Amino acid sequence: MIYWLLTPFILLLLAWPYMLFLEARRLDTPVKAFAYRFGREDISILLTLLLYNGAAAFALYMAFTKIIPLESAQEGVSLKVQFVFCLIVMPWLAIAFIVNRLHYSYWRQDRHTRLEVDKLQQRVVYTNQDQQLTFAVSEVVSIVQYSARYYSRAPWNAYEYEVYTLQDGTEIIITCLLYYSTSPTALFPAAQRETVRRRICWLPKSRSLNHTSLIQNS
């Protein structure tokens, strides 16, 4: 009986990312807004987080419950135990650390960010927490997309970001957490495009648009 009661909630939970996906792909609305919403992340990002965090947790569990007790129960196997521990645990922990750090830095960058493009007025409103910057679509002179070099092989391949440069030199960083599948670049047809490949797309701290630069350039 309990399974039948939980079925609608399970279906709703599964349908939520797909609903956000359909919403994000709609570029025909007069005003298109890009904002972070839980569950909007690319499905590959969510699967990567679940997979490698789960694998790291399982490796730690196996190490502490199966391998380390072996060292205390038997003498003369210390080096072997340490080798097996490193072989099993360290790769998963390293990958999980990179993915979690990437996700946290992207989330911290865009958790309070909103990019709103009015296609009728050709105006853009960029909001970062309590600061706001308004400019014309034509003021975006270049868009540089930073994506993974080994897209189909690296665990962190789905993490990418874009740098929008205005005529006055102001730079705005938009990460992949702000949109789902459809990038805002299609709304800026006059901007020059460039793609830069990196092994890992860490966010550049020195080029991030902070609150001070928003005030100075607005």
TrEMBL record:
Q: Which InterPro entries match?
A: PH_40
- One Pfam family, short name please? PH_40
Domain PH per the UniProt entry, residue ranges: 39-185
Q: What is this protein called?
A: PH domain-containing protein
Species of origin:
Hymenobacter sedentarius
Q: Which UniProt keywords apply?
A: Membrane, Transmembrane, Transmembrane helix
User: Is Transmembrane given among the entry's keywords?
Assistant: yes
Bilayer-spanning residue ranges: 6-22, 43-64, 79-99
